[in-house]
Amino acid sequence: MDQNGIDQHPGAGRRHIMSLHLRTQRWTSVALLVAAIILLVIVASIGLVSLTYHDLVLGGRWALHSEWLHGADIQSRAAALGQLGDYFGGTLNPILSFCGFLVLLVTVVLQRRQLEEGTRQLEQATRAIDLEAFVRVSDTLNAPGGLAAREHMLGMARDGRTALPPDQWAAADLQAAHTVARQFDLVGVLIEGRLFDANLFLRSWHHAVVAGWEACEPWVRHHRAQSGDGGFMRHFEELCVLARPCRPVVPERLGVTLADAAARDT
Asked: N or C of the chain: less Cβ packing under 10 Å?
C-alpha cells in the first residue's frame, strides 16, 4: 500500500475474484446436494409407502404377479387399486409438498446468494473505478507543474506575502495561484459530478486542499471583486469546506488513536 492508501498488490483483485468464484461454486454444490437428497427422499418414500401398503394393508397379497390379484374379480381388483391410490395420495402428497417447499426454499436462498454476489462484484467494480480516478487525479496534482505551484504558494504563505494585495503580487505568484486554484477547482467539479469518491480523495489531500485555499483565497476574492464573477473557483472553495473537518481514519481503523501515536513518538 502506497502513501495515498492505494493497494498496489496486483494479486489482490485476482484473489477477490477467485474468492467470489469459489463461493459461487460452493453454493452450487450445496444446491445440487440438496436436490439429490430431495430426490432420494421422494424415491424412498414411494418405496416405503408401497411396501407398507403391501405388507400392512393387503397382508402381502398384492403384487402384479400374485395369484390373489389374478384370481380376484374385477370389483375386488378395482377396490384394491382404489385403496392403493388413496393410500399413496394421502401419504405421499404431504411428503411431496414438503419436498416442493424445500426446493422453493433452496431456490430463494440461491437467488439471494447470487444477488449478494452480484452486489459485491458491482461494489468491487465501483471501487476499482474510484481508485483509478483517484490515481489519475493524484498523478495530475503531483505533476511537476502542480507541485512547483503548490510549493510556491506555501512559500508565499510562510513568508506572509499572501497578505499583500494580489495586484502587488509578481507574475510568478499569480501564475502559481492560478495553477493551484484551477487544479483543485477541477477536482471539485469531478466530486460534484460524482465521478469518483470524495472521501477517498480528501483522506489523502485534505491538508493540501486547505493550505492551497488559504494561500490562494486572497487572489480568488480579488479576482471575484474585479470581474464580478462570484462563482469564480467556487468548487475549490466548496472542496475546502469539505476538507476542513476531515481527519485521517486509517490509524483509528487500526485501533490506534492519533493521540496515542503522538504520545509514543514523544
From this structure: C
Residues 130, 139: Cα–Cα separation, whole Å: 14
| Residue 202 CB burial class (10 angstroms; 0-12, 13-18, ≥19) | buried
In 3D space, the residue among 237, 240, 235, 144 whose CA is nearest the CA of residue 186 turns out to be 235
CB 199 within 8 Å of CB 133: no
Helices (H), 10-73: 11-52, 67-71
- Residues 239-264: tens digit of each pLDDT: 999 898 875 544 444 344 444 544 54
Helix segments in the chain, DSSP class H: 11-52, 67-71, 74-141, 144-159, 171-192, 198-227, 234-243, 250-253, 258-265
Question: Residue 58: in which H helix or E strand, if any?
Answer: none
Nearest CA among 167, 152, 145 for reference residue 218:
167
With a CB cutoff of 8 Å and minimum separation 6, the contacts of 172 are: 152
Give the phi and the psi of residue 58 in degrees, each rounded to 5. -95, 0
Separation of alpha carbons 197 and 182, rounded Å: 20
Distances (CA, A) of 179 to 81, 91, 151: 94, 83, 11
CA distance 16 to 131: 16
Output the pTM of the full model. 0.55
How do residues 152-207 score in pLDDT, each as one tens digit?
Answer: 999 999 999 999 999 999 999 999 999 999 999 999 998 888 887 888 888 889 89
Cell of 52: 407398507
* φ, ψ dihedrals at 249, nearest 5°: -110, -15
- Polymer length of the chain: 266
